[in-house]
């Protein structure tokens, strides 16, 4: 099962997301659930750089493809316009994950948390 966790700050802005595990919907290379979550997760990270204009070096992230793990922490010091773009990108990720959870609840979970260490 894939577990997606979205962390918010005191103002309910998304400031971190983690994705871990494998769906187990089908065999590796044919698992459409894993593929869907992977595309959303990677596209979100790419969008933070390309659309929001945050340099890759400023984003604290780690990826372990073999274990199916991605952890992305948004930099805390962003100007107002960038924060708006970031929140739009991250809300889009959340919407996509919710859609996958609705259609494949046995394979993906979505949890929320407050970020204390970010």
From TrEMBL:
Show the GO MF annotations: cysteine-type peptidase activity
Tell me, what is an example of a GO biological process annotation in this record?
A: ribosome biogenesis
Report the InterPro entries cross-referenced here.
Peptidase_Prp, Peptidase_Prp_sf
Give the keywords, sorted. Answer: Hydrolase, Protease, Ribosome biogenesis, Thiol protease
- Alphabetized SUPFAM superfamilies for the sequence: TM1457-like (SSF118010)
Cell cycle keyword on record: no
Coiled-coil regions listed: none
**Hey, which family's this protein in?**
Belongs to the Prp family.
What is the designated name of this protein? Ribosomal processing cysteine protease Prp
Q: What is the lineage of its organism?
A: Bacteria, Bacillati, Bacillota, Tissierellia, Tissierellales
């Amino acid at each position: 099962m894939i577990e997606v966790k979205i962390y918010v700050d005191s103002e309910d802005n998304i400031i971190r997301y983690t994705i871990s595990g494998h769906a187990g919907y089908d065999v590796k290379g044919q698992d459409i659930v894993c593929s869907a979550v992977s595309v959303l997760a990677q596209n979100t990270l790419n969008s933070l750089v390309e659309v929001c204009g945050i340099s890759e070096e400023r984003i604290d992230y780690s990826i372990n493809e073999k274990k199916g793990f991605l952890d992305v922490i948004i930099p805390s010091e962003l100007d107002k316009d960038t924060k708006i773009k970031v929140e739009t990108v991250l809300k889009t990720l959340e919407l996509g994950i919710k859609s996958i959870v609705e259609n494949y609840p046995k394979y993906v979970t979505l949890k929320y948390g407050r970020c204390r260490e970010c």
